[in-house]
Write a structure and sequence with these properties.
By secondary structure, the protein is α+β, with helices and mostly antiparallel strands. It folds into 2 domains: about 130 residues, Pnp Oxidase, Chain A; about 50 residues, Alpha-Beta Plaits (2-Layer Sandwich). Helix content is about 20%, strand content about 35%. The longest helix has 9 residues. The radius of gyration is 21 Å and the shape is elongated. It starts with a helix and ends in a 5-residue tail after the last strand. The structure holds flavin mononucleotide and iron/sulfur cluster (2 copies). Flavin mononucleotide binds next to β2, β4 and α2.
Length: about 200
């Protein structure tokens, strides 16, 4: 697909989760700017959203377009210089109506400089999923994996809803097509399938 971060900027109004003590919180907020591989946001100092970010900068974002393509990203935000606010207002003129004149002084700007993410494309009957990283982060490969313990019995192939498994001396999973449903893992008689590393 196109750049997944550009995708988030285009969708613009996304779901952003924060942590409130140990509980998840989520709300709609805008990706106001995408510049130098970083996503930029703003919020107001009076909001729980802001207070949660100050206490814990970890966020998780998800958005979907009209074709059922979704992008999910997570990482640690950094508050940035308020000069970015002017840039965000220029790129999103509606902000001048929501926070007119000096009222923008209550706002704070922050960015997501690095993180990991996943594209889940449900635009066709064959869902495809890929991981990506940005800003110098790395990400482990997704999908279940078949190991050398495989005795080529074929049970996993018959149990896979997406046809992601092909036969061979050792069977192989196409990780782009793997839904990570775990059915092959549960059915394998020889413990030859490994779970994916956490995203
Ligand atoms: C389309 C849309 C875009 C929004 N964009 C933002 C935003 O960029 N920043 C923000 O602080 N609030 C934004 N809001 C408002 C928040 O969703 C709302 O203030 C929410 O209550 C904040 O979360 P909190 O209650 O956890 O602080 C937006 C709301 C909508 C409907
Ligand atoms: S079910 Fe297990 S042993 Fe059988 S083919 Fe699949 S991975 Fe190999
Ligand atoms: S985890 Fe599910 S989708 Fe992935 S290969 Fe196994 S059965 Fe197929």
């Amino acid at each position: 697909m196109e750049d997944p971060l550009e995708f988030l900027r285009k969708v613009k109004s996304v779901s952003i989760a924060t942590v409130d003590n140990n509980r998840p919180e989520v709300r709609i907020a805008d990706v106001m700017l995408y510049e130098d591989d970083k996503l930029y946001f703003l919020t107001a100092r009076g909001k729980p959203y802001y207070k949660q970010l100050k206490a814990n900068p970890e966020i998780s974002i998800v958005a979907m377009d009209e074709n059922y393509v979704t992008v999910r990203v997570k990482g640690k935000i950094k508050f940035v210089d308020n000069s970015f606010l002017n840039k965000m207002f220029d790129e999103n003129p509606v902000m001048n109506h929501i926070y007119p004149g000096d009222t923008r002084e209550i706002l704070e700007a922050f960015c997501l400089p690095k993180g990991v993410g996943e594209v889940f494309d449900l635009s066709t009957n064959t869902p495809k999923c890929e991981r990506f990283a940005f800003g110098g982060e790395t990400v482990s490969e997704r999908g279940y994996k078949i190991t050398d313990n495989c005795i080529a019995c074929g049970i996993c192939k018959d149990s896979c809803p997406t046809g992601a498994i092909s036969e061979g001396n050792i069977y192989v999973i196409d990780n782009l097509l793997c839904l990570e449903c775990g059915n092959c893992y549960e059915k394998c008689p020889n413990d030859a399938i490994e779970e994916p590393l956490e995203f």
